[in-house]
């Protein structure tokens, strides 16, 4: 097969969302610029005395999970008992470390977020017995985001065919698009064929990987009608276009001056969560569109800060990786947190009555995530700045990193443990 011409990489989707996405990208870039040289409105700090019980609760929870992983359940009943113990431990951690109240916990534990993730695991294994645990857990993250959107919209929290398909779709496509070792021609061929399939064209898969991707698109088509729910498919074309654009960030030989890195990064994150919203609701108001795009842009920045070292070493161009090692990330991180606060302002017009507790958890945890991931990149900050930022974390950075590493060393056992929960009856 002859690869398509390089200019196809930059072709915008033909759907009606393309102009909207351009405007949304301009808006979030403007909001980012407005946060330059501003101190983020972080308020609550933690003293050593306040941290002590929080760190004790985290260590106890991590140790309990590690202990459970050493003794994997052998039956569905045993897996159910382990699951209940872990949920109970998480509830205690949330109350002690994050000051969650009953109303916060009920909004999460009683809504079925964990059931949705377990059902996703079951369906992923049925769809593809060879699916990698890492792809399943990457999918969990998106399932939870989409379940959160269901909560905000007043919809039942459940795993729909579209949520399943979209949450598994991008681990598969990312494996192709984000692979620095893959040939550019093969990426262009895949991107072109994938785009045509998203447009609804009949196209036979050329290999097993393509068949999986095309079948997942088919699951979305089974839930949404292309004529009636056109914006669902427009949003998929929009994220595809953004993914293709982001591949350019992998080309270390391409001068950063020739790329609008900020716009590419923010658009990729924005279109991803915007697609989440359309796949959950089918249609969205303009205010909801603007909020979801801004939220996705901010979440992308969190992901990029979390991966800053690996990205910098790989030559991947992101907002943080560009500066890492050249100048401290102090001001960029302040700008990103300020940007997050700005994007979350739209949350108040998004949620349905009765979702206030969930909104509170979402707002605090999303901002805290940026503070936390900065602690994994201390080498890229000035000492005074990282010490000042750490004061806003309920855990010392070194302590949290130690606990994270303890879990990471048990990652294979943990993957097996959490997959065993898929055998638990959810009735």
Descriptive report:
- With 427 residues, this protein is mainly alpha-helical.
- The chain is 68% helix and 0% strand.
- Helix 4 crosses helix 16.
- The longest helix has 23 residues.
- The N and C termini lie far apart (50 Å).
How would you summarize what this structure contains?
The chain is mainly alpha-helical and about 425 residues long. About 70% of the residues lie in helices and about 0% in strands. The protein has 19 helices and no strands.
Summarize the topology:
Blueprint: H1 17-34, H2 48-70, H3 76-98, H4 102-109, H5 113-127, H6 133-152, H7 161-177, H8 184-198, H9 208-223, H10 230-247, H11 261-281, H12 286-306, H13 308-314, H14 319-323, H15 330-344, H16 356-374, H17 383-390, H18 397-408, H19 411-420
Keywords:
427 residues, 19 helices, mainly alpha, disordered N terminus, globular
- How many DSSP helices? 19
> What is the average per-residue confidence, as pLDDT, rounded to a whole number?
88
The SS-based structural class is: mainly alpha
Helix percentage range: 55-70%
Calculate the terminal CA-CA distance, rounded to whole Å: 50 Å
Evaluate the radius of gyration: 21 Å
Element order, helices and strands? HHHHHHHHHHHHHHHHHHH
Largest sheet: none
Strand element count = 0
Beta-strand percentage?
A: under 5%
The global form is globular
